[in-house]
Amino acid sequence: ARITLRQLLDHAAENDYGVPAFNINNMEQALAIMEAASSLDAPVIIQASRGARAYANDIMLTRMMDALTEIYPQIPICVHLDHGNGPATCMTAIQAGFTSVMMDGSLKEDGKSPGDWAYNVGVTKRVVDMAHLGGVSVEGELGVLGSLETGMGDKEDGHGAEGKLSHDQLLTNPQEALKFVVETKVDALAIAMGTSHGAYKFTRKPDGAILAMHVLEEIHRLLPNTHLVMHGSSSVPQDLQDIINQYGGQMKPTWGVPVEEIQRGIKNGVRKINIDTDNRMAMTGQIRKVLTEHPSEFDPRKYLKPAMEAMTKLCKQRFQEFNTAGQA
Ligand code: G3H
Ligand code: 13P
Ligand code: NA
Ligand code: ZN
Q1: How many CA atoms lie within 13 A of 159 on its CB side?
Q2: Which end of the chain has fewer CB atoms < 10 Å from its terminal CB, N or C?
Q3: For the structural domain made of 5-321, what CATH number should be given?
Q4: pLDDT tens column, 1-37
Q5: Whose CA is nearest to atom 3 of ligand 2?
Q6: pLDDT of res. 158
Q7: What are the φ and ψ backbone dihedral angles of 172, each rounded to 5 degrees?
Q8: CA of residue 196 to ligand 1 center, whole Å
Q9: Ligand 2 atom index nearest CA of 279
Q10: Helix (H), strand (E) counts: the chain
């Protein structure tokens, strides 16, 4: 059944678990997630970015979500817009049947310059007012994602702030977070704590200097009833890097967010954990492997099936690690 983000995260808070929010762009990724969710009785958040909507077409996405709820009637599914950049994008997602939208006002509509306080509160409040009229949930974001090691916003994957940012911008201010939630009435709040999108988050295993768990803990102390969201939460597992590189890929050495830090986050109010990169890597590793080992193969199912299985395996791991398993 379709469920809103608010309904799902309220249940997660009451029962002390976290919910991974997996990005999709196509049928293979959607089926891989649902296979994992149904085999473990886990509720899911399936999210699509603006890029995913442009890639797959809203009508295709809508019908696919309908199909998933029909195939898996026992699994609660929240369909969420990832990183909406303005009221119009959020409204068209709602029209397409999304039960939750992110209004990311941490960046201006150009997706490059940080949004100031007045812009962020104003645009987020506007989306909340509209979405709530239709029973749709809203995630907001305060603070800009980017690296505390380099001070750079995460431009790498095509969206994120450009250029160098101060620690003030890269770390959500807890007092401001409190004000932001009260003024906007968002259902969930994404915070900046040193994570960034993509595979290249950290040059070493992160410690408190570059992954600011203390900021998260302070925000949770001030806002114990607010559902917090961790973006850029792929762990970028070494074994997935190895498979890609073993079969002709060229990923540079890198670190992601360790699962134990996410688990610590879940003890401190984190309810939604955004993961895309890990699944991209899981699929790509298998596709590279099949095509390298069987260069004469050209039936897409021959590499997409193992790719889906690798993604299902990753999703199952996260459902177990975040205690989502068994909560459907
Ligand atoms: O926020 C980033 C997600 O990984 C989605 O990425 O905009 O390339 O679809 P995308
Ligand atoms: P990753 O790139 O770490 O998977 O983060 C995804 C994300 O935050 C989507 O909004
Ligand atoms: Na999101
Ligand atoms: Zn994100």
Answers
A1: 15
A2: N
A3: 3.20.20.70
A4: 999 999 999 999 999 999 999 999 999 999 999 999 9
A5: 232
A6: 59
A7: -65, 130
A8: 11
A9: 4
A10: 13, 8
Instruction: Determine if ligand 1 sits within 6 Å of the CB of residue 102.
Output: no
* Type of residue numbered 174: P
Instruction: Give me the catalytic one of 10, 41, 82, 242.
Output: 82
Pair 220, 267: CB distance under 8 Å: no
- Cα–Cα distance measured from residue 194 to residue 206, given in angstroms and rounded to the nearest whole number: 10
ipTM greater than 0.90? yes
The SS3 of residue 200 is: coil
Domain boundaries, the chain: 5-321
Q: Is the CB of 279 under 6 A from ligand 1?
A: no
Q: Is 299 a catalytic residue?
A: no
In the chain, where does DSSP find H-type helix? 5-14, 27-40, 50-56, 58-71, 87-95, 117-133, 167-170, 174-184, 213-222, 238-246, 259-266, 277-293, 300-321
pLDDT number for residue 163: 86
Instruction: Please give the C-alpha separations between residue 10 and each of 122, 135, 314, in angstroms, as whole numbers.
Output: 25, 15, 25
Backbone angles phi, psi at 2, to 5 degrees: -75, 140
Nearest to 192 by CA among 143, 234, 232, 159: 143
Residue that is written with structure tokens 């806002």 in the block: 223
pLDDT reported for residue 161: 86
* 214-218 long-range Cβ contacts below 8 angstroms, 24+ apart: 215/171, 215/172, 215/174, 215/191, 216/191, 216/265, 216/268, 216/269, 216/270, 217/268, 218/174
**Predicted TM-score (pTM) above 0.80:** yes
